[in-house]
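Exam prep: given the inputs below (a chain plus zinc ion), describe the expected output before reading on.
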Amino acid sequence: MTVTAIRGDFLHCLADPGEAGDASAVEHLRDHVLIARNGIIEALRPAAVTPLGADVRVADHRGCLIVPGFVDCHAHYPQVDVIASHGTQLLDWLEKYTFPAERAFADRAHADAAAAFFLDRLLENGTTTAAVFCTVHPVSVDAFFAAAQSRNLRMIAGKCLMDRHCPEWLQDTAQSGYADSRALIEKWHGQDRLGYAITPRYAPSCTPQQLALAGRLAREFPDTWIQSHVAENRREIAWARELFPEAESYLAVYDRAGLLRERAIYGHCIWFDAEDRARMARTGACAAFCPTSNLFLGSGLYDLAAARAAGMHTGLATDVGGGTSYSMLTTLGEAYKVQQLQGATLAPAQGLYLATLGGAQALGLADRIGNFRIGKEADCAVLDLRSTPLAARRTSLRDNALDAFFALTLIADSRAVVGTYVLAERIQCLW
Ligand code: GUN
Ligand code: ZN
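Solution:
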């Protein structure tokens, strides 16, 4: 039985603050102590009235802001070396940079090294949970889950299903994709904090038969996740419509295959109409909003307000390596700008929610992670408001933790994250 304590100022969402950013949904607790037993939150009390036994280890972060570990709803660990590749939009970027890089993940040692690098970057940035694409190779999933398990992380991942429209050396078949995914589910899903995501890469890379078998898996294993891409880029959409002329829309292709349900997370969802949004809301599928990727690949602007009005859930995501940063702080800053460009805004409280409890909600994990409620898993990020002279100057202007957090999303980077805790244990990694 291990009891650990973490002391500092805590900031977390108790509920969805809504578009207006209702501040009562956010709790700011000055100089409190979080007590965890075997990694589970047992108490969160004012430090002044919390005597601790001599045997309890206390991590003292007084003066820092402690937030729930960030939740990245969509990223690609095999794209560690694809990040910041110049000059193309989605379909050419896949051909020129991404598919060649993914080829190397047939090799376990290569995959092990990339998984370690990727997870260290997440932890360096305070991210403790992510939904992650591996490659078509089952061994790439083994490497990722083994690396996540050894760090005690809550991670969701899966093998890409792709049996057409990609290089022949990166293809599976409908049957082998089904069999390999099934074996990986049986091996990894529910082990410690790991969950499996059935991962049809996107409709253009899957035959109708492969999508149908993915849907069969989703029915056979109803508590697995599903992840894919949809409505990201205009050329991609036109192509999907050509390939599936019988479907009412690109999104409907997934619906017909039984791939829209709770625990289904679709990257991008930019070029949606009212019917698409209604379909997402009706089925319980969620969008992953990937602002740095959408700007970098020139894909378009995600309309958060329209998604919310339609009753559809959104999580926030880096989409590394289409995305350009591992930092969910930076990602939030770019999310804010994407809303500004559409004449909308993103309230600081809504931003904090998107990166923590909202992401947990989108992934169906809000009973486990996302805030500091008693009984949840003690994953958190410790933010230093004074990590740079600029951050120190800006965050000292007002005595308001949410305003300071908002400022960090625009002007800070991984230097602001001075500690990341997983199940109340501080993670030391190579940064
Ligand atoms: N659509 C299909 N594959 C990918 C990918 O790897 N990244 C992005 N951003 N979109 C995709
Ligand atoms: Zn993606």
